[in-house]
UniProtKB/TrEMBL annotation:
Enzyme Commission number: 7.2.2.14
Alphabetized UniProt keyword annotations: ATP-binding, Cell inner membrane, Cell membrane, Magnesium, Membrane, Nucleotide-binding, Phosphoprotein, Translocase, Transmembrane, Transmembrane helix
Name of the protein in its database record: Magnesium-transporting ATPase, P-type 1
Segments for region (Disordered): 531-558
Its job: Mediates magnesium influx to the cytosol.
InterPro entries referenced in this protein's UniProt entry, alphabetically: ATPase_P-typ_cation-transptr_C, ATPase_P-typ_cation-transptr_N, ATPase_P-typ_cyto_dom_N, ATPase_P-typ_P_site, ATPase_P-typ_TM_dom_sf, ATPase_P-typ_transduc_dom_A_sf, ATPase_P-type_domA, HAD-like_sf
Principal location listed in the UniProt entry: membrane
Topology in the lipid bilayer: Multi-pass membrane protein
Transmembrane feature ranges: 61-94, 245-266, 718-743, 755-775, 787-809, 821-840
Top-level EC class: translocase
Originating species: Streptomyces yokosukanensis
Assigned protein family: Belongs to the cation transport ATPase (P-type) (TC 3.A.3) family. Type IIIB subfamily.
Length: 846
């Protein structure tokens, strides 16, 4: 970062930057942009395809394959070694190019939701400065920017003025606790506390600041930090679990084959290439390629058709797996464009004076805190009674902050007096009013009645105090006189009701977590077509202190199995706690929220989702951003996640059942026969054909029935499935072996090895094609649906199985043409196998 401009007083800093408190002119800003370049951090170093390919070697399957290839080379089995190393190279290259394509399309998508900053600019030297929203990339050194809650600091800035500013600078320091920052006008200021750095998030307060460094010169860019990777998703963990179970099995295979061969047939180390190729046959080596392709395709399709931006690719799997979605209310289910509905006095009758006090409070809070934009409730008040605040002199303001549900403005009152005007959540304001317990209860009930109409409610109170110079703090918000209530109407967001209905149909349970009044939230929930099973109020610190509870529940007690729960009056921590509680109870949880008070929950969830209009910091914390206002995109995103997970699960199901079956049959046949059931190079060639066909799974459309429930992959159930179907496959293989043996008068009479090898090669590829069709989605096929990419790939695989043995390639691989009678026998075995597979599928309810 440019180090010298940040020391000295604010004025010295502004002078050095050739700027002033009124900001730059448009012409000067344009000239500086041309000179300094866009305010974008240097692009993170994108690894080359070669580097990515080499990184692919660290994948467990690829590493094991490589080891097996090296072992084959070591025993001079060059054919086996060459085919295995070719497999490794193809898998690494496909994965690397897929990853690069995914990265490129993601970078383009991120620009759809790029941020803006509020900057003071003038048309010429004499013009009045105006606040503009400009793309963050257009900021230049010397620009004067405004910061408010929820903003991301757009560049390195020196604070000129600040009010109660706290920021999180974990992007830079890794420390997530908010740190206070304040402007200082000293010649030798503590620079760190009067500087804010690019990438920090404003938690509370506001500031006006001058940009001192942009683009590659910021501290963030200099630190070259990359965001911390999130812990792997439930789906990733399951895939990983299955992968490691297989890797262990694979490593056991060669020694087992060697030992069994030695014990039963007295074979020696010459069986090693065969043992190695059997282990290779077990590997789903295309898994990384298929995962990357499925995710990248789904993300690109979502962005193109639904304008949904997936910022972290694996989050798509989480989306597919969520069974609970927690939603914030204001700004997500409603538009957060409140309009004043009523202004009523303590007796419940209309009283315009209450609105007037609320508007004075809003005006001075806005003026004194210099927020870049007023909060929506304040904006609604000012829309109705804009000029009223100017009739007073503002003294101080205590704005709302995360966890603080009221705001106070202090203005000059009658001579020698200050007037405190407080507005906020009814419970919080009434708690600070001088009232009898019965009167407080009556007023709380009045507020609840208004809230039950679905309106948002603010209570207003005032206090007359002798004037003073000592600063005001929240401790001064006491002994207030209650003035009345102002209520607001906030429209439902477009598509909100429909998207909640879709989510329910998709088997996702929806809960609403809001900072608002329980009655308002319950009513909104009903208007959206959800009948809440329960409404809770998150306990306040004082509640908990009274009950002596050791750990805070935040309304996160057990949630009923069905139905929506509304948790109202949540602080940001309460929202995060509910989400973590649901995750701990075994749910996969999504969180949809738009505000600075949602950031903790967005980060705590398996997948955080933010609408486009969300605060910058919420968008930055989310994994998925909806670029359109319409919430119905969520349902499509969930379905896209399920689709890509279903494709990966189908691939795993098919490939593992089939591979396991082949390996078991090969092991058994290896022991029964006087020769190897297949040559190592044949095993590998067959494996290569199957792998190529399997790539079709990345392009498949799973049956609608597979998309109706969250996609969860449970390794134990999954391993049971592949063992069951693997056995069935082994039986089919051995039946072919039996047929061949019978036709040729017993195993030891099988002297034509080439015929045997060719027969088994063809049978293997045909059974694999059958498994691809039947274990993926037999029902659709049975209904006469179109074959789709997997259907075509299976047909091609079967054709290769029939065409290779009589071809010159077959001859090169040691195969020969098969007698026509064999094809008839094969058709009978395959027919029986298809029947057995279908029966097993129906019995298992797959
Ligand atoms: N400008 C304001 N002045 C006074 N009180 C406010 C103001 N803004 C919000 N509040 C009070 O603070 C409460 C909590 O606000 P918060 O922003 O946490 O949640 P919310 O916007 O009501 O709901 P959600 O969590 O669904 O976004 C509000 O319900 C309101 O009572």
């Amino acid at each position: 970062m440019a180090s010298e401009p940040v020391t000295g007083t604010s004025l010295q800093v502004l002078r050095r930057l050739d700027s002033g408190p009124r900001g730059l002119t448009d012409a000067e800003a344009a000239a500086r942009l041309a000179a300094h370049g866009d305010n974008v951090p240097p692009r993170p170093h994108t690894p080359s395809v070669l580097r990515r390919a080499l990184r692919g070697l660290r994948e467990p399957f690829t590493a094991v394959l490589l080891t097996l290839g090296l072992v084959s080379a070591f025993v001079a089995s060059w054919g086996t070694a060459t085919v295995i190393l070719a497999l490794v190279a193809v898998s690494c290259a496909l994965r690397a190019t897929g990853e690069r394509r995914a990265d490129r399309s993601l970078a383009a998508l991120r620009e759809l939701v790029a941020g803006t900053a509020t900057v003071l600019r003038r048309t010429d030297d004499n013009a009045v400065p105006r606040a503009h929203e400009v793309p963050v990339t257009d900021l230049v050194p010397g620009d004067v920017v405004r910061l408010g809650p929820g903003d991301l600091v757009p560049a390195d800035v020196r604070l000129l003025r600040s009010r109660g500013l706290t920021v999180r600078q974990d992007a830079l320091t890794g420390e997530s606790a908010p740190v206070p920052k304040a402007a200082a006008d000293l010649p030798e200021p503590d620079t760190d506390s009067c500087l804010c750095f690019q990438g920090s998030a404003v938690v509370a307060g506001s500031a006006t600041a001058v940009v001192v460094a942009t683009g590659p010169h910021t501290r963030y860019a200099a630190a070259g930090r990359t965001p911390q990777p999130r812990e792997p998703s439930a789906f990733d963990r399951s895939v990983h679990g299955i992968a490691w179970a297989l890797v262990r099995f694979m490593l056991l295979t060669p020694p087992l084959v060697l030992m069994a061969g030695a014990a039963v047939r007295g074979r020696g180390l010459e069986t090693l290439p065969f043992a190695v190729s059997v282990a290779v046959g077990l590997t789903p080596e295309m898994l990384p390629v298929i995962v990357t392709t499925c995710l990248a395709r789904s993300a690109a399709l979502l962005a193109r058709t639904r304008r949904v931006v997936v910022r972290r690719l694996p989050a798509l799997h989480d989306l597919g797996a969520i069974d609970v979605l927690c939603v914030d209310k204001t700004g997500t289910l409603t538009l957060d464009r409140p309009v004043v509905a009523r202004s009523l006095g303590p007796d419940g009758r209309d009283d315009p004076e209450v609105l007037r006090w609320a508007a004075v409070s809003a005006w001075w809070t806005l003026q004194l805190t210099e927020l870049p934009a007023p909060d929506a409730l304040d904006e609604a008040l000012l829309d109705l009674a804009e000029a009223v605040g100017e009739q007073y002199d503002g003294i101080a303001a205590l704005p709302v902050a995360p966890g603080r549900r009221l705001a106070t403005a202090v203005v000059a009152g009658r001579l020698g007096h200050h007037l405190l005007i407080t507005k906020g959540a009814a419970e919080d304001v009434l708690e600070r009013c001088e009232l009898s317990a019965t009167e407080r209860q009556r007023l709380l009930a009045l507020a609840a009645r208004e809230a039950a109409t679905g309106h948002r409610v603010l209570a207003v109170a005032t206090a007359d105090r002798p004037s003073r110079t000592r600063p005001y703090t929240p401790a001064d918000e006491r002994a207030l006189a209650f003035r009345g209530l102002v209520t607001f109407h906030d429209e439902l967001a477009p598509g909100a009701a429909e998207s909640l209905r879709t989510l329910t149909d998709l088997g996702v349970q929806v809960h609403i977590l809001t900072g608002d009044h329980p009655a308002t939230a319950t009513r909104v929930c009903r208007e959206l077509g959800l009948d809440p099973a329960e409404t809770r109020t998150a306990p306040t610190d004082s509640d908990e202190a009274r009950s002596g509870a050791g750990t805070r529940g935040g309304g996160a007690g057990p949630f009923p199995g069905g139905g929506t729960v509304v948790v109202a009056r949540c602080t940001p921590e309460d929202k995060a706690r509910v989400v973590s509680g649901l995750r701990a109870a075994g749910h996969t949880v999504g969180f949809l929220g738009d505000g600075v008070n949602d950031v903790a929950a967005l980060l705590a969830a398996d997948v955080g989702i933010a609408p486009r209009a969300a605060a910058a910091v919420a968008r930055e914390s989310a994994d998925v951003v909806l670029a359109e206002k319409d919430l119905t995109a969520i349902g499509h995103a969930v379905t896209a996640g399920r689709r890509s997970s279903a494709n990966i699960a189908a691939y795993l199901r098919v490939t593992l059942s089939s591979n396991l079956g082949n390996v078991l049959a090969m092991l058994a046949a290896g022991l029964l026969l006087p020769f190897l059931p297949m040559l190592p190079v044949q095993v590998l060639a067959q494996n290569l054909c199957f792998d190529a066909a399997q790539l079709a799974f990345a392009h498949d459309r799973p049956a609608p029935v597979e998309l109706r429930r969250p996609t969860v992959l449970r390794p134990p159930a999954f391993l049971r499935f592949i063992t069951g179907f693997g056995m069935l496959n082994a039986v089919a293989d051995l039946a072919t072996f039996g047929v061949l043996a019978l036709a040729l008068d017993g195993p030891d009479a099988l002297d034509d090895q080439a015929v045997f090898h060719s027969a088994w090669f063809t049978e293997n590829l045909l059974t694999q094609a059958l498994v691809m069709l039947l274990l993926r989605d037999g029902r659709r096929l049975a209904r006469g649906g179109r074959p789709g990419p997997v259907g075509w790939a299976a047909a091609l695989l079967a054709a290769v199985g029939l065409a290779v043995p009589p071809s010159p390639l077959g001859a090169a691989l040691g195969m020969t043409a098969l007698p026509p009678a064999y094809h008839l026998l094969l058709a009978a075995v395959l027919g029986l196998y298809a029947l057995a597979l279908t029966v097993a599928k129906v019995r298992r309810g797959v």
